[in-house]
Amino acid sequence: MLMQTHEARLSALREELKRRGLDGFVVPISDEHMSEYVGDYAQRLTWLTGFGGSAGSAVVLQDRAAMFTDGRYTVQVREQVDGNLFDYEDVPETSPAKWIAENAGEGAKIGYDAWLHGVEWAEQAEKLFAKKGIELVAVDGNPIDAVWADRPQPSLAPAVPHDDKFAGRSSADKRSEVADWLKSEGYDATVVTALDSVAWLLNMRGKDITNTPVALSYVVAHADGTAELFIAPDKVTPELTKHLGNAVHIRDRDQFEPALADLEGKTVAVDPNHAVAGIFHALEAGGAKVVRDDDPAVLPKAIKTPAEQQGHRDAQARDGAALVKYLRWIEENAPSGEVDELTAVAKLREFRGLSPEMKDSSFDTISAAAGHAALPHYKVDEDSNIPIPPSSIYLCDSGGQYLDGTTDITRTVWVGPGEPTAEMKDRNTRVLKGHIELDLAIFPDKTSGGALDALARMHLWQAGVDYGHGTGHGVGSYLSVHEGPQRISKPGGAFPGTETPLREGMILSNEPGYYKPGEYGIRIENLVLVVDAQVEGSEGKYLTFETLTHVPLDRTLVDKSLLSEREIGWWNDYHAKVREILAPQLEGEDLAWLERQCQPL
Known about the structure:
Elements: H1 6-19, E1 24-28, H2 44-49, E2 57-61, E3 65-69, H3 74-80, E4 87-90, H4 96-103, E5 109-112, H5 119-131, E6 135-138, H6 143-147, E7 160-161, H7 164-167, H8 171-185, E8 189-192, H9 195-202, E9 204-205, E10 217-222, E11 227-231, H10 238-244, E12 248-251, H11 256-259, E13 267-270, H12 277-286, E14 289-292, H13 298-302, H14 306-333, H15 341-352, E15 358-361, E16 366-369, E17 392-398, E18 400-402, E19 405-406, E20 409-415, H16 422-439, E21 443-444, H17 449-461, E22 472-474, E23 483-488, E24 507-510, E25 513-516, E26 520-523, E27 526-532, E28 542-547, H18 565-582, H19 588-597
Parallel strand pairs: 1-5, 3-4, 5-6, 8-13, 11-12, 13-14
Antiparallel strand pairs: 1-2, 2-3, 7-9, 8-10, 10-11, 15-18, 16-17, 17-20, 18-19, 21-28, 22-23, 24-27, 25-26, 27-28
Helix pairs in contact: 4-5, 14-15, 16-17
């Protein structure tokens, strides 16, 4: 029988836990690869609670349950999750483990799926629970799967080769680099679990996760340069087999866990940031010596080859032309009050889809009108969808997946009639000044993103305001739109990667913002490439950013009196470059609109 209500689903889960002798269960948003975005088959938290955000978790005890989200989802979780069934808990003020320690009685047995949680989370929870006489139990089979009757099956879309002309390096070359690292560290093998790392290492892409072109699979890479790919047989085509060659042994994904026992006596490196606890447990049970070390694909994946850098430029140029058509459409149609957030999403997708190289969006478009724009991670759906009000701010954060690059851009625009308020123009101009400050930064080689973050905030701070998210994240090449290890964020914050040194070839976002709850939000986002600064007379190597995103900024929201000559020069130079790149792709009214937007300030 299919359970339609979340109350019925919660009740069924409690009965299943009781049958297994468990007093509680932890439900994360996760899959076996600790992916940021997960396939429909792994959307257990959404099925149980109704929560549709990308970060959160729940705990179910027999007598109460709780939802855990951070400040990004304070409004959304209350709209989507029934407060009669779940308490709302704020992270980092508390956490699932802390809450369990306080609310589960002594002697309680709390279940968790070791194939959905990181090993360090499990170890810390176990230590905390022990003080309270609570036992953490790794379940044999997820209890939600036992009661989710119509759970979708994992995707069987074929995995496909990613051409070396886009990657700029062969898979054999990448595997050789990993093998050299293994030998230098004295390791026999490493287990590669992150889906984008597998995709990068094998020059392979797929369609198993919405917005991210990866295939559900694992790799065990060996010190002799060979590798084993664990993937569902139905996903393997003759083209993929030929592409991988004799040095990659293709095995059934179902054999992955038992195959870890084949590494008995071997020294195996596993990254605790990307590998679930179940992998550590299986290796240790099989007699391998497990060493915790970084995924060897993460850093070289972040440093783009010349081919990937050029691919990004080409993808951004195509994407920019689509955005011009879209922004012109918004300017002409939204003031009527008859365009809603979802209609705008569909229209942008339509314009991007005019390019045959466009394969998917790179994330769910943030189409945010009025007060919704004040929610940095707002996700529009049928329930939240509203018309874009006339005389308001509209924010659109979106991206495309192209064969040669992944894009991510935010533009904030004024929807007429009338003029924005002085406060709106002040805040937008301060965001713009921070964006320019970071864009023009020159810094020593291996400077961390954390050291640059204040540049983007300084003009907001002078007005006594700030924003709560990071300033920049890494971006992949026809891969994940959020890619580590680098990021630009406040040092010591909750985001990993803040201390990672920036290197030539890395791509990051530059996206300061400002948000006035319930009223409006502003964000300006371009992607940038870390390049040699070529400073004359410099004592050592210095770096700077090359701007990759070229789309007009809304001049209606700019208070020119707040801009310095240097900043006005940046604006004019930027828009001259926008015109140079986009004009050849446009004609008629679209070209005329571009010309107007690119006039000197």
